[in-house]
Amino acid sequence: MKAFYEKYFAATSTELYHNPRTGFSSYFLSFSDGARLELCHRPDIVEGDKDTFGFTHLAIAVGGKEDVDRMAAQFVENGFELTSGPRTTGDGYYEAVIFDPEGNQIELTTH
Question: Which of the chain's ends, N or C, has fewer CB atoms near its CB within 10 Å?
Fold first, then answer.
């Protein structure tokens, strides 16, 4: 996942943090606009755990319409399924939607 966000969104990452007692590990990814994303792993998490699942999607503003179109095409070229768009939504956003390698829904949007 770290490599995915570094490659497609130019994120920079901290070194891996690992707590050997709990097994928890994480990376903090930083983006050029100052946003940060923490990628976490806990070995005790199982599917359906209310503490780990439940968010709908992550929206990432990538620039203008041309940038959304370009990135959507790049994802498709690299074997990712485009699940929606590019399109203008009912609430006025221009977006394209893909799933990252772990199945998290990523909405590519304009600024």
Answer: C
